[in-house]
Design a protein that fits this description.
The structure holds two protein chains of two kinds.
Chain A lengths: L3 E4 L2 E4 L5 E7 L5 E8 L3 E10 L2 E4 L6 E3 L9 E3 L8 E8 L10 E2 L3 E5 L1
Parallel strand pairs in A: 2-11
Antiparallel strand pairs in A: 1-3, 3-8, 4-5, 4-9, 5-6, 7-8, 9-10, 9-11
Chain B lengths: L2 E3 L4 E5 L4 E3 L2 E3 L5 E7 L6 E6 L5 E3 L5 E5 L4 E6 L8 E8 L5 E3 L3 E6 L1
The chains are: A mainly beta, B mainly beta.
Chain lengths: ~120, ~110
Amino acid sequence: NAGVTQTPKFQVLKTGQSMTLQCAQDMNHEYMSWYRQDPGMGLRLIHYSVGAGITDQGEVPNGYNVSRSTTEDFPLRLLSAAPSQTSVYFCASSLGRGPGDYGYTFGSGTRLTVV
Amino acid sequence: AQSVTQPDIHITVSEGASLELRCNYSYGATPYLFWYVQSPGQGLQLLLKYFSGDTLVQGIKGFEAEFKRSQSSFNLRKPSVHWSDAAEYFCASSGNTGKLIFGQGTTLQVKP
């Protein structure tokens, strides 16, 4: 098992450019989510998905789009990058929503700089 | 609304001293509670989790946490801190939807 794989690890964008952050997991987890981490703000939930074809907004969804066409992949799209989106982005996955072992697993992160 | 608060942004303790990191949650029912640790430039590692049952839970690296429903708290403790424990610690909660919400984090500095 590779766990949760995020690509790229580093990225520099110009204001107004678009890009997609990739996230893939090979654990057959139903639940996947995207977070951004900023100093003093902790991790804030951007979007999450409870299964293929189902997504929902988190705490800070503006400027980001997601889709979940397969169980394995959950890409995050920046439509028109802004300097305020400079952050470290983490993808996470979990076995599901029911009681028991949630087992949230995190990727190693993508450091994005928008200039 | 579901929320998590970590009142201490930064804590400094001497090596060998005891540690307690505070966490308060807000949720309509009993949440699922977690503590994660993040070393500089690294991802998040799960220290421990609480779902139900015994309110004192043991985790990795000698950490433990106690769930107190009356105080809406889930504080993290360690009897004797090591220099390698210096890191950022995050408390998180999840309800029945599985949406995981984090606190702002507490940075732990360990003095030799």
